[in-house]
Amino acid sequence: MLHFSDLLQYTDVFFSGLMTTVELTLLTTILGIALGTSCAATRQYGHPIGQRTVTVYVELIRNTPFIVQLFFIFFGLPSLGLKLSPWQASMIALTINLGAYSTEIIRAGLNSIPKGQIEAAKVLGMTFRQTLTRIIFTPAFEKIYPALTSQCIIVMLGSAVISQISVEDLTYAANLVQSRNFRAFESYLVTAFLYLGLAIALRFIFNQIGKRLFAYREAR
Amino acid sequence: MIQFSNYDIISNLLYATQWTILLSIAAFIGGTSVALLLTAARLTRNNVVQKCVHFYVELFQGTPLLMQMFLCFFGLSMLGYEISAWGAAILSLTLFTSAFLVEIWRGCIDTLPKGQWEASRCLGLSFLQTLRHIILPQAIRVAVAPTVGFSVQVIKGTALASIIGFVELTKVGTMLNNATFEPFKVFALVALIYFVLCYPLSLYSKYLEKKFHVSR
């Protein structure tokens, strides 16, 4: 009853969809974590107004569905004069989304650094920036690294929604193929397993990066 | 052509919110029931059963919820099972919710020291007695906060049901947008309604977390 061979001629469609998803994931992972890091630092050590702003941003994003955020950015912002291509809109939406979640995660890491450690750095004459990068962020990131990577994977899976604003990602490819040959079950099943493979591959890569990043642990 | 006043937009959105809430509740009940069964199965310490549960969790946590919905909706009807958008949404959300809850609850049960299982064994309690009198009362206290927290994810997940054509908040939002050409207002209102639904749950989950941390 299942005819997977009908999908073979669309291999390149799936492949280009997969590449778009990978590309967007990598880009938003980097941008999102950068955004999350600066927001977490602001939330923890910044000006009270900055802290408030970050809290509002995080709570707003964490308590609304990604698809609504995406529609708001893609359909809503042009009425304010800000026209975005589907690709740009989804990149911004994914970054903002990951940024909010990673803010919370990174903040938990920052909270776990004992105050004495920061004071010790001060006594040793380290500047605030040195303290931040060497004394606070490195051990904080090590602690929250697993949570952060699984959030990145969750965002990658959530990116399936961007096919709705016609970004040609993996889900878009699945829809395209099934509309051509009417093999919906096969097409979606293959796509689901491609996502699963991508999730497993990402987790493996993140683990390898983690081992490199926190290698100083082994050296001691 | 019909004109939509602000009142019309809001009343239509609120009407649709009912379906979002209903779908969330149905999915949450379905998800917790399946997760309970799977957690019980996992506790039997049968290797094969544990492997199966692990595979289930990997499968549904590692694939997008949207794909699961497509498979349930388009896929199943392709295979000859008639399924409505409502049924497909509940089915896929149940699978998705249960996969996450099993993992959450596993963590809660694993936080209890192993010595408690062994001590109960020494005291002559059976497996079920240990579970009922020793493990569950403690595990449930730990599990409530993250479970409430996850219910927020379920509510947000129901937004995807709009894509397979189930008429709930997001779907009515897109329909109103098509009719009024006021996307900024419509989607801001939709987001606001989701926020009003989810934020109290987030706060409650945070409160529970604090409360149980103090008492421990």
TrEMBL record, chain A:
Q: How does it sit in the membrane?
A: Multi-pass membrane protein
Ranges for domain ABC transmembrane type-1 = 18-206
What coarse category fits the chief subcellular location reported for this protein? membrane
Gene3D superfamilies, per the entry? MetI-like
Protein name as it appears in the record: Amino acid ABC transporter membrane protein 1 (PAAT family)
The Swiss-Prot or TrEMBL record describes its family as follows: Belongs to the binding-protein-dependent transport system permease family. HisMQ subfamily.
Key words, A-Z: Amino-acid transport, Cell membrane, Membrane, Transmembrane, Transmembrane helix, Transport
* PROSITE patterns in the record: ABC_TM1 (PS50928)
UniProtKB/TrEMBL annotation, chain B:
Q: What SUPFAM superfamilies does its record include?
A: MetI-like
Query: Which Gene Ontology terms describe the biological processes this protein takes part in?
Result: amino acid transport
Pinpoint the ABC transmembrane type-1 domain residues.
17-205
What does the entry list under GO cellular component?
A: ATP-binding cassette (ABC) transporter complex
Task: List all membrane-crossing ranges.
Answer: 20-43, 55-77, 83-105, 142-166, 186-204
Q: Which cell locations does it reside in? A: Cell inner membrane; Cell membrane
Q: Any keyword Cell membrane?
A: yes
Q: Which domain of life is it from?
A: Bacteria
Write down the PROSITE patterns for this protein, in alphabetical order: ABC_TM1 (PS50928)
Q: Name one GO molecular function term.
A: transmembrane transporter activity
Query: What Gene3D superfamilies does its record include?
Result: MetI-like
Keyword Cell membrane annotated: yes
User: Membrane topology type, per the record?
Assistant: Multi-pass membrane protein
Chief location bin: membrane
Q: Which UniProt keywords apply?
A: Amino-acid transport, Cell membrane, Membrane, Transmembrane, Transmembrane helix, Transport
Q: Which family does it belong to?
A: Belongs to the binding-protein-dependent transport system permease family. HisMQ subfamily.
- What is the name attached to this protein's record? Amino acid ABC transporter membrane protein 2 (PAAT family)
